[in-house]
């Protein structure tokens, strides 16, 4: 095990972590703000990548392609939202149905299961070849980091508006929100649209970074997203209390996840086991509040003392 091999691989891991950090922020919005575990992300991740690559191959500008991917992701969230609110299907099942349908949609968008793009022939925003020995303005790590900061600023502003506060209130207590005259169904649909738009944007970035869009590129994305959220909260939760900084902590959690992934590969451990370990990690951290209340909280005395 050569340490230099690990050091040389870390910038690539950090870049990939930043790309997935955009997706993790989208997962955070539904999981922590709306209190929904949205499984649409496994499909909308691929949708974003597929739309972006197909648009680029058709000769469109990279920013236009990414905007199209963003809109496509929002539409996948709209589909899940309609299933959940208009049709009354439980949120988790709505996400599964949309994810299932997106498999066919993504195949139709790409025309086949895998669509590659050559960085030498097309003007891509980022690429795994733009990490070392390139001008600073083309560096993948810098560009994605700046993009994440801009996204966090926009989200921080949005969730401070009346509509954003209504969305947060819906996730916190939907019955109280309805009592205050908030259309909670609209808030849920809007939240799902914003979340999946970010996930699709991450898919567009990932497709450019790796040079292809693949029908399986979003498989297990929800586990990676939840792992990034959990790691970010565990490492930075006591430091970051502001909403914007919490979003930043989630993105940093994705970077930590991929740095650990790189260390696992360097140690010679089977990387196929990483998603299993991620699933166990997420399960344990989600179980901690229940374990605390059930096994470690002090019993409370019921009733009062009898009068003498």
Quick overview:
Helices cover 71% and strands 2% of the residues.
Residue share in β-strands: under 5%
Unreliable runs: none
Please bin the fraction of helical residues. over 70%
Cα(first) to Cα(last) distance is 76 Å
Radius of gyration: 21 Å
What does the largest sheet look like?
2 strands, antiparallel
Class by SSE composition: mainly alpha
Mean pLDDT: 89
Number of helices: 11
The protein's oligomeric status is single chain
As laid out across the biggest beta sheet, the strand order is 1-2
How would the global form be characterised?
globular
Beta strand count: 2
Question: Could you characterize what this model shows?
Answer:
This protein has a domain at 9-217. The chain has 308 residues and is mainly α. The chain has helices at 3-33, 41-57, 62-85, 91-110, 140-158, 162-172, 174-179, 184-210, 221-236, 243-266, 274-296; strands spanning 114-116, 212-214. A two-stranded antiparallel sheet has the order 1-2.
């Amino acid at each position: 095990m050569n340490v230099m091999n690990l050091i040389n691989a870390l910038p690539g891991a950090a870049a990939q972590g930043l790309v997935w950090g955009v997706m993790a922020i989208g997962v955070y919005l539904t999981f922590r703000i709306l209190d929904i575990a949205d499984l649409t992300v496994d499909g909308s991740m691929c949708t974003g990548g597929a739309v972006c690559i197909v648009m680029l191959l058709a000769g469109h500008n990279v920013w236009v392609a990414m905007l199209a991917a963003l809109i496509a992701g929002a539409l996948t969230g709209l589909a899940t939202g309609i299933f959940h609110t208009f049709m009354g299907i439980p949120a988790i099942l709505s996400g599964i149905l949309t994810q299932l349908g997106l498999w066919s949609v993504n195949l139709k968008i790409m025309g086949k299961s895998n669509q590659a793009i050559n960085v030498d022939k097309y003007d891509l925003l980022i690429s795994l070849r733009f990490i070392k020995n390139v001008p600073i303005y083309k560096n993948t790590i810098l560009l994605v980091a700046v993009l994440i900061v801009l996204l966090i600023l926009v989200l921080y502003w949005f969730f401070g508006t009346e509509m954003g506060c209504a969305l947060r209130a819906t996730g916190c207590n939907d019955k109280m929100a309805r009592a205050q005259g908030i259309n909670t169904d609209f808030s849920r649909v809007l939240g799902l649209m914003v979340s999946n738009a970010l996930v699709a944007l991450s898919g567009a970035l990932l497709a450019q970074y790796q040079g292809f869009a693949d029908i399986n590129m979003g498989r297990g994305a929800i586990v990676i997203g939840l792992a990034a959220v959990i790691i970010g909260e565990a490492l930075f939760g006591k430091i970051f209390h502001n909403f914007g900084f919490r979003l930043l902590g989630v993105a940093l959690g994705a970077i930590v996840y991929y740095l650990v992934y790189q260390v696992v590969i360097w140690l010679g451990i089977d990387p196929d086991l990483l998603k299993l370990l991620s699933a166990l990690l997420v399960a344990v951290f989600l179980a901690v509040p229940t374990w605390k209340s059930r096994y470690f909280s002090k019993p409370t005395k019921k009733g009062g003392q009898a009068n003498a």
